[in-house]
Amino acid sequence: MKLIKCKSCGLEAEHAGKGFCKRCYRKQYKSPMIICKNCGKERRHKAFGLCGTCHIKINHYDTNKAYNYMKWHNIPLELYRKKTKSCEICGFDKVVDLHHLDMNKKNNSKENLVGLCPNHHKMLHNYRFSKEIVILLAKNGFKAKISVL
User: Fold this and answer.
1) In whole angstroms, how large is the CA radius of gyration of the chain?
2) Does 20 fall in a domain?
3) Per-residue pLDDT tens for 3-53?
4) Per the structure, how many domains does the chain have?
């Protein structure tokens, strides 16, 4: 371990590079600019030829998603994906929300969860349309609660 006097802060510390201590070297270092392989924009390099945003999306998205579903819904990612494949009423499969049939967010049993498109989900939570959506869900074998004021 070689101690040096840092060029920036003047403290005697372990040499990190270019005459700086570790703290000052990290402050002055900037990663090189690259053209991101994914988005094609010129940004600072993160890893694998990608910018920071694309690196997180491509390499860590599933990990983050699984963590968030465990945190928010207390269910595994596989169950969430299975339940939100398509809307149980209309079959829409682009954006699907998770709905608790008994309206109790803490009850995460498989029988209590159903996937609904944003339109049907919003209608179910609106007292004017709730009865209509409950009837449509009942036709598909789900027993949901009617929303009240």
Assistant:
1) 26
2) yes
3) 888 887 888 888 777 788 888 887 877 889 999 999 999 999 988 899 988
4) 3
Tally of CA atoms within 13 A in the half-sphere of 41 that contains its CB: 7
Sign of torsion, CA 142 145 146 149? negative
Kindly state whether residue 80 falls inside one of the protein's structural domains. Answer: no
pLDDT of residue 149 exceeding 70, the answer is: no
| Residue 95: C-alpha distances to residues 39, 106, 124 (Å) | 23, 23, 16
Rounded to whole angstroms, how far apart are CA atoms 146 and 149? 10
Q: What is the pLDDT of residue 121?
A: 94
Instruction: Please check whether residues 128 and 92 belong to one and the same domain.
Output: yes
pLDDT digits (tens, 9 = 90+) for 83-138: 999 999 999 999 999 999 988 888 888 899 999 999 999 999 998 999 999 999 99
| Structural domain boundaries, residue 23 | 1-30
